[in-house]
């Protein structure tokens, strides 16, 4: 039987990938009580960064939003693993922390991270409404344009 969240993902045409393994001395997620802290996810598809560079220079706002959306897909993949394969256990998305590689004069980081926020609300409904930070940074791993971390609450 397919769960409610998995059905919603299918309706949206979103297939969750196999969660990425850690590439350094950290865990992809840590569970503490009912909270799951998911490490920063890059816009990876099949192990490759889909959008690289800097907003305000060589990456458009639309491509940045697409990168953020892919980060959200990867966050959901990690959350599914943390929830024992059942995304219906996600009670709410508590927080997103978004990092946007950008030039010093680029100030639309919140618009970029909306690519992730919008997907989370589309998938999780009201449980996807969250607190958030959207921060500009000089660079990100693998020259990714966006990296996003999350905190989920499970039932």
TrEMBL record:
It comes from the Bacteria. Pfam families: YjgF_endoribonc. InterPro entries: Endoribo_LPSP/chorism_mut-like, RutC-like_sf. Residues 6-146 form the Endoribonuclease L-PSP/chorismate mutase-like domain. This is Putative endoribonuclease L-PSP (Protein synthesis inhibitor). It comes from Magnetospirillum molischianum DSM 120.
């Amino acid at each position: 039987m397919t769960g409610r969240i998995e059905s919603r993902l299918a309706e949206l045409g979103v297939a969750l990938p196999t969660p990425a393994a850690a590439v350094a001395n950290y865990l992809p997620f840590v569970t503490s009580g009912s909270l799951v802290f998911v490490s920063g996810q890059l816009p990876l598809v099949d192990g490759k960064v889909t959008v690289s560079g800097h907003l305000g220079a060589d990456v458009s706002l639309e491509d940045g939003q697409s990168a953020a959306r892919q980060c959200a897909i990867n966050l959901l993949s990690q959350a599914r693993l943390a929830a024992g394969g059942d995304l219906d256990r996600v009670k709410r998305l508590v927080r997103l922390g978004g990092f946007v590689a950008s030039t010093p004069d680029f100030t639309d980081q919140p618009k970029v991270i909306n690519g992730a926020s919008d997907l989370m609300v589309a998938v999780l409904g009201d449980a996807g409404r969250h607190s958030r930070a959207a921060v500009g940074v000089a660079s990100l791993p693998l020259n990714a344009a966006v990296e996003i971390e999350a905190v989920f609450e499970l039932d």
